[in-house]
Structure formats: C-alpha cells, structure tokens
Amino acid sequence: MEEEKVELKELNRSTEDKLRKAAKQASMFERTIQPCLAELVGTMFFVFIGCVSVIENVGATGHLQPALVHGLAAAVLVACMAEISGSHFNPPFTLAIFLCGGMQLGMVIPYLISQLVGGVLGAVMSKLMTSKENYINATGAAFTILQSNEQLPRAIFAEMAMTCLVTMVVLLGAVNGKSRSPMVPFLVGCTVIVNVLAGGDISGTCLNPARALGPALVAGYWDYHWVYWVGPIGGSLIATALLRLLLGDEKIRVILK
Fold first, then answer.
1. How many other CB atoms are there within 10 angstroms of residue 22's CB atom?
2. Are 251 and 159 in contact (CB under 8 A)?
3. Rounded Cα distance, 101 and 127, in Å
4. Cβ-count burial 9-19 (b if 16+ within 10 Å, e if not)
C-alpha cells in the first residue's frame, strides 16, 4: 500500500513537471518568438502591398493610390496584430516605444531584425508579382525622387517632420496612458495617408527604413538611401523627446511631474 502511494506521488510529480515545462515553453513562444514572427509577417505584407501599389501606379493616379494603399494596409495590419507584437512594423517606432517605456530592451534587437528581414521579403514578393517592365520602370518601388544634393535639406526635414507626426500618433495612442485609444489603427492609417499626399513630391514619404531597405536591396538602387534612415530615426527621436518632456503622462514624463 505504501509503495503504491509513493509511486502515485512520483507519477503526480512527474506529470506536474511536464505540465510546468510545457507551460513555460508555450509562454516563452508567446513572449518572444511569436511577437517577432508577427513583426516579420506584418512588415513583409506592408512593404509588399506598398511596393506593388507604387510599381503598378507609375504615371497613373499620382500619389492617391499609394497613399490609400499604404494607409489602409497599415490600419489593417496594426489592428490584426496589435495584441501579438504591438504592431510596430517600423524600426523608428520600436526605438521610440522602447525609449518611452513601452517594451523591454531584450526585444528591441529581435524586433528590428524581424522588421528589416520582413521588408526585404516584402520587396521580393512585389518583384515576383509585378511585370518586369513595370518593375524596372518603377525601380522596384525604391525611393528615386532625390536626384541632387539641392533636394537633401527639404527631403531630410520632410522625413523627420512626417515621421515625428506619425510616431507621436503611435506613442500617444498606444503607449501614453492618459491618451491611449482603441482607434490607433485608424489614426495611424489616416496619418500615413495624409503624409504621403502631403510629402510625396518632396521625399517620397518613406517614414520607415524597412520600407526603404527592401526595395533598395532587391532593385539594387542605393542613391541617397541614407536619407531614409536619418530622417525617420531623427523624427522618431524628436517625438520621443516631446513625450518624455512635455506631452507624456506622469509615468512617461521625466520632468514637471
């Protein structure tokens, strides 16, 4: 009888250990791997749809089609994956969200890698989907609007200002406790649309290094590519400073508490 009790206790302990191990593995997957996969897939489809809209729109409807496609794609993807990864899909967003206390340091690099890989995969998908003629005419939807150094000051300022605006929308709508809103997907999508309509002729309205890197790598076009890193990252840092110093709630703000 005593031996049976001992065997039963050992069996129960073994079962508990297995369940605990399985729960730990599932938790690790949902905490680390799944969010990175969501960032990769979300960025991939955002870049894919955005690039196709540009490639198939050369000389057709101006900036209206790309603006609507980028904005609506952002809204849909943010809404679908917000509860998995936070739906960043943009390295400057990840940087700003981390600096405002919205994510852990250990997830920053994995998110950035996932977004950049997703951008490249999205650009590859757009090349596979579109005709060779259209792809070449649009240079693979890489940003080719900058042709001289005289355009640089305006383009850099445009990328910084427009990225600052959309980053503030993300931070105020998703991170800042005082102004957090369930309408973030709609707000981000609308901001992307108005930015593309306003700044398309000045810088091309990138706002996202992952969106710039993928087409540049696949199409082999690197002229003034650095602008689409410096401008968006600079704009996101300005938005971060505005929240940390002035607009954020007491948890985010570092002064005037």
1. 10
2. no
3. 38
4. eeeeeeeeeee
Per-residue pLDDT of 218-251, as tens digits, reads 999 999 999 999 999 999 999 999 999 999 999 9
All residues at 6 or more sequence positions from 201 whose CB lies less than 8 Å from its CB, including other chains: 63, 145
Q: Which two tokens stand for residue 169?
A: 């929308």
CB 71 within 8 A of CB 205: no
List all residues 6 or more positions away from 127 whose beta carbon is below 8 Å from its beta carbon. Answer: 135, 140, 218, 219
Give the integer Cα–Cα distance in Å for 244 and 241.
5
- The CATH number corresponding to 31-246 among 1.20.120.450, 3.40.50.720, 3.30.710.10, 1.20.1080.10 equals 1.20.1080.10
Q: What is the pLDDT of residues 52-106, one digit of tens each?
A: 999 998 766 678 999 999 999 999 999 999 999 999 999 999 999 999 999 999 9
172-217 pLDDT, tens digit each = 999 999 999 999 999 999 999 999 999 999 999 999 999 999 999 9
Which of these, 194, 190, 198, lies nearest to 173 by C-alpha position?
190
3: pLDDT confidence band, cut at 50, 70 and 90?
low
Residues 6+ apart with CB under 8 A from 212: 119, 142, 143, 206, 225, 228, 229
- What's CA 142's distance to the chain center, in Å? 17
